[in-house]
Write a structure and sequence with these properties.
By secondary structure, this protein is of the alpha/beta class. The protein has two domains: 5-15 and 83-206, Rossmann fold (3-Layer(aba) Sandwich); 21-77. The chain contains nine helices and six strands, in the order E-H-H-H-H-H-E-H-E-H-E-H-E-E-H. It has a six-stranded parallel sheet, with helices on both faces. Helix 2 (26-34) packs antiparallel against helix 5 (65-77). Residues 9, 11-13, 159-161 line the site of magnesium ion (MG). Its EC number is 3.1.3.-. Pfam families: HAD_2 (PF13419). Keywords: Hydrolase, Magnesium, Metal-binding. This is HAD family hydrolase.
């Protein structure tokens, strides 16, 4: 069935978080270091923070309730104020016809500032910043399909995280494309696996 729309993830799909992570999360890493309880694990905490929602990182690393809450409060105010470069293959997505949606989970101000600094706002028909306390990617995907009269088979979901947007898309029967630049995952994780956006148009047109 010909596709009509693509839903994209933001972090590690449009740009690499590692490029801005030390600066963006600097105040958070300082807070965690200053708590004194995690100094031996800072490198793994930093890596996880750039790949995984903060609540999950906090749980896995046994942060105290107080440190978790302080970390959340801090990140609610964090913004990135410098230009951000997208992945070099990002412009390829503009050669693909149809509707484009950007759906990202995270702190509103932070996600909004990143989208602004990437300069990608006008590339998308709709942009959604999902607050996981209020809703989920799955609900937002379902709402997009409903409002635009799209069936699951007319849509691709593209993202880097099998446990996030890929899982949400699978639950709705939407075709999934894992964007796996560093070959972290097996090809069984999604319907398709790509490492460059030049390969996306063919999937869009031929599946
Ligand atoms: Mg991501």
């Amino acid at each position: 069935m010909p596709k009509k729309a693509i839903i994209y993830d933001l972090d590690n799909t449009i740009y690499p978080v590692s490029d801005i992570g030390e600066k963006l999360f600097g105040p958070l890493f300082d807070l965690i270091t200053e708590s004194g309880a995690h100094e031996h694990h800072m490198e793994s905490i930093k890596k996880a923070t750039m790949r995984t929602p903060f609540r999950v990182v906090a749980q896995r690393h046994n942060f105290s309730d107080e440190l978790t809450q302080k970390g959340i409060n801090l990140q609610e105010e964090l913004e990135y104020t410098e230009p951000i470069a997208s992945f070099e293959d990002y412009p390829e997505i503009k050669n693909i016809p149809g509707l484009r949606f950007l759906v990202t989970t995270g702190f509103f101000k932070m996600q909004h500032s990143k989208i602004k600094q990437l300069g990608i706002t006008s590339d998308f028909d709709e942009i959604h910043i999902v607050n996981p306390v209020v809703t989920s990617k799955k609900e937002v995907f379902a709402d997009i399909l409903k409002r635009h009269n799209l069936t699951p088979k007319e849509v691709l979901v593209v993202g880097d995280d099998p446990e996030s947007e890929i899982a949400a898309a699978k639950a709705l029967g939407i075709t999934t494309v894992l964007y796996d630049k560093n070959d972290n995952f097996s090809k069984e994780e999604a319907d398709f696996k790509i490492s460059h956006f030049k390969d996306l148009k063919r999937i869009y047109q031929n599946t």
